[in-house]
Design brief:
By secondary structure, this protein is mainly α. It has one domain: TTHA0068-like (Hyaluronidase domain-like), CATH 1.10.3450. Helices cover about 50% and strands about 0% of the residues.
């Protein structure tokens, strides 16, 4: 039997028992988050995004509404991206986008709007030279995510759908 791929690993990692809202509730057990962070490859690059289980799990956490937890996991992915790279800019954009959604849930609309601006700016940096997908996300999909501070509405479920590459 073949070893599971990164997509299967990310899909099968359990979700936290609840989404952490700082100042409102306690954090979940960190064991799964630590496990997910340890899955980050030594180098974050677009050529191997499909093999990056930490990236895939971080995006899954965002899609499931675990914004604080997504930030924790995606930080490991961000740290392993080359300085000033498109990948580093995109992961930063998603971290800011997740934080914007978290601030919106906490009722901090000014902070959410500030983070949307930072998210959008980082996303535009990631795609500034061309529209080639970065870490499996098209420019259109990434910008749609970064320009919002919530996941409600008609397109919420597909906000971070990966491109067919």
């Amino acid at each position: 039997m073949a070893a599971p791929g990164a997509d299967e690993i990310a899909a099968n990692l359990p979700l936290p028992d609840h989404a952490h809202l700082p100042g409102v509730n306690g954090r979940s057990e960190d064991q799964v988050l630590e496990q997910a962070k340890a899955l980050a490859p030594a180098q974050t690059c677009s050529q191997s995004w499909q093999e990056n289980a930490a990236w895939l799990y971080g995006v899954r956490l965002i899609g499931e509404g675990y914004y604080w937890e997504a930030h924790e996991v995606l930080e490991a992915v961000w740290m392993n991206a080359a300085p000033n790279s498109r990948e580093k800019a995109l992961v930063q954009a998603l971290i800011h986008g997740a934080n914007a959604r978290l601030k919106r849930k906490l009722g901090k609309s000014n902070a959410a709007l500030r983070l949307v601006a930072l998210s959008t700016e980082a996303c535009e940096r990631a795609y500034q030279n061309d529209g080639v997908p970065v870490l499996g996300l098209s420019r259109t999909v990434a910008l749609a995510f970064c320009r919002r501070d919530n996941d409600t509405g008609h397109d919420a479920g597909a906000v971070l759908a990966f491109s067919d590459m």
